[in-house]
Design the sequence.
């Protein structure tokens, strides 16, 4: 008798310890972006900003559940290339954030600029005084030659020209000096290095193992004036930006080159880059919208896509007006990517860019509850992204 009593106490203790969800979404069609299919009739529970449980919906809705019958739920979108900190002004940043929310973007990878306003923005997100897209920002590194050509606006007002978020890297920098800079970037809150112009292949080979040692991502340009695309990929940069740099900086603006862009020699040259990228899992951050005067590049993106290169969705937005949906439409309509692959680029691949595989960009138990609730199926038409019922960031509805 005593044992049965103890068992009953344990049972009720377990019941009361079970986490109670904050929100339960009843009977929604979950968009499985990883596999490009719909999982119909699911109930999704959210607790503390995380997806707690996903299960087949009961036949009847329970009290307190939100009825999403007939609607579609997919993960929030990820812009893998932005420059939110470039203007260094909070007002400008806040307007850009609003524009991103309108587009359904819930995560942004910032690829360099003045990180001080972004740090303030991130602190507001962390303290809960603001709800907006999460931002992963970088420390921007380039060779001294790059910085000689322009004023250092991104560190203006800082005691030294170099700062944890922006470093001029001398050719003679030792591994110890580089490691100190990597640690400074990490301590400042950067989650990756943006490895920009005038860094030799040898220098990249010194820097990238230090990134990995300290848990930072190595993001870079596909060509950087000293190292070509194949050298950059071989050095271990994990995400390479700009399809026009796969073609080559000198080539992309040359009308002469455009005539020979698709000769067998050039196709073979690019193919060797794609093969290396596929072998290493390197992501191509194509940024096709900003290259749109160069229409021939659509065909180059298609070439990389057909070769099997992993492609993200990055805009390179710098002027405050976001162009994310435009980027997705161009990838489908002009570059010949399938809609499911473009949705994957904007979610699963974006999560990989920032090192959050399985935690972002998926509707999965344990993932962040960044959710888009749509009125129609986005796997059939990207127009569905503009026909939204609701948007949640970390489980909180954002109007
Ligand atoms: Zn950029």
Sequence:
């Amino acid at each position: 008798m005593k044992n049965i009593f103890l068992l009953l106490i344990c049972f009720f203790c377990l019941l009361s310890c079970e986490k109670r969800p904050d929100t339960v979404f009843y009977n929604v069609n979950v968009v499985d972006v990883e596999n490009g299919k719909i999982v119909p009739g699911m109930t999704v529970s959210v607790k503390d900003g995380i997806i707690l449980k996903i299960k087949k919906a009961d036949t009847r809705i329970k009290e307190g559940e939100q009825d999403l019958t007939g609607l579609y739920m997919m993960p929030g979108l990820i812009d893998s290339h932005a420059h939110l900190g470039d203007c260094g002004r909070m007002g400008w940043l806040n307007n850009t954030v609003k524009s991103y929310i309108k587009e359904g973007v819930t995560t942004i990878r910032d690829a360099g600029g003045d990180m001080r306003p972004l740090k303030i923005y991130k602190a507001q997100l962390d303290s809960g005084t603001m709800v907006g897209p999460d931002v992963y920002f970088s420390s921007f590194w380039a060779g001294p030659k790059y910085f000689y050509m322009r004023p250092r606006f991104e560190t203006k007002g800082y005691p030294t020209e170099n700062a944890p978020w922006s470093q001029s890297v001398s050719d003679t920098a030792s591994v110890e000096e580089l490691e100190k800079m990597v640690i400074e970037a990490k301590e400042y809150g950067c989650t990756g290095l943006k490895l920009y112009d005038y860094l030799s292949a040898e220098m990249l080979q010194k820097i990238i193992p230090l990134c990995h040692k300290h848990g930072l991502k190595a993001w870079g340009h596909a060509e950087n004036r000293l190292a070509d695309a194949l050298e950059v990929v071989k050095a271990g940069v994990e995400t390479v930006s700009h399809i026009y740099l796969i073609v080559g900086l000198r080539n992309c603006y040359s009308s002469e080159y455009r005539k020979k862009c698709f000769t067998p020699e050039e196709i073979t040259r690019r193919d060797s880059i794609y093969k290396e990228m596929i072998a290493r899992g390197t992501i191509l951050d194509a940024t096709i919208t900003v290259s749109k005067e160069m229409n021939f590049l659509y065909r180059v993106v298609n070439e990389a896509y057909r070769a099997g290169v992993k492609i993200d969705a990055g805009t390179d937005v710098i002027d405050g007006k976001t162009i994310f949906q435009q980027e997705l439409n161009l990838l489908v309509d002009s570059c010949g990517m399938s809609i499911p692959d473009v949705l994957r680029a904007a979610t699963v691949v974006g999560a990989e860019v920032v090192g959050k595989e399985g935690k972002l960009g998926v509707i999965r138990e344990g993932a962040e509850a960044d959710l888009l609730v749509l009125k129609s199926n986005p796997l059939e038409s990207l127009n569905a992204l503009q026909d939204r019922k609701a948007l949640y960031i970390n489980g909180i509805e954002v109007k």
